[in-house]
């Protein structure tokens, strides 16, 4: 799938003010930054930065990937969602 890169997060699909703020806190200020970091690492960094909070996978991990692909998070293919969950779990176990 093609990645859509732009200069900032404002206006990107699935990225509201709260997610944008959380991304900024981990040093992500553009979709290019997010692509470079990877959505899995960004999701895990957000979780690690806020250990007292729970971040649902669909609202964060899927939303981040959807932003890169310019798709609503619910439109991501099932296989991609499965792979993202697996990567997030594998990296959190290490």
Folded structure, characterized:
The structure is a single chain. The chain is an all-alpha fold. It has one domain: 5' to 3' exonuclease, C-terminal subdomain (DNA polymerase, domain 1, Orthogonal Bundle), CATH 1.10.150.20. Helices cover 55% and strands 0% of the residues. The chain has 5 helices and no strands. It is globular, with a radius of gyration of 12 Å. 31% of the residues are buried. The model has no long low-confidence stretch (mean pLDDT 89). InterPro entries: TfoX-like, TfoX_C. This is DNA transformation protein.
Features of the shown structure:
94 residues; mainly alpha; DNA polymerase, domain 1; 5 helices; 55% helix; 0% strand; globular; DNA transformation protein; TfoX-like
Question: Secondary structure elements and their pairing?
Answer:
Blueprint: H1 17-25, H2 31-37, H3 39-49, H4 61-69, H5 78-93
Helix pairs in contact: 3-4, 3-5
Which overall shape is indicated by the principal axes computed on the Cα atoms?
globular
Largest sheet: none
Number of helices: 5
CATH architecture, by name, is: Orthogonal Bundle
State the secondary-structure class: mainly alpha
Percentage of residues in strands: under 5%
Total domain modules: 1
Radius of gyration: 12 Å
Oligomeric form of this entry? single chain
Helix content: 55-70%
Question: Regarding CATH, which class?
Answer: Mainly Alpha
Average pLDDT taken over every residue = 89
H/E series: HHHHH
Low-confidence stretches: none
Domain TfoX C-terminal: 7-87
InterPro entries: TfoX-like, TfoX_C
Pfam families: TfoX_C (PF04994)
Protein name: DNA transformation protein
């Amino acid at each position: 799938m093609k990645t859509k890169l732009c200069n900032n997060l404002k206006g990107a699909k699935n990225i509201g003010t709260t997610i944008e703020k959380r991304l900024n806190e981990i040093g992500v200020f553009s979709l290019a930054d997010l692509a470079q970091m990877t959505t899995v690492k960004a999701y895990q960094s957000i979780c690690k930065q806020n250990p007292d909070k729970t971040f649902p996978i669909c609202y964060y991990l899927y939303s981040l990937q959807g932003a890169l692909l310019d798709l609503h998070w619910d439109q991501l293919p099932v296989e991609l969602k499965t792979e993202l969950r697996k990567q997030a779990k594998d990296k959190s176990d290490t």
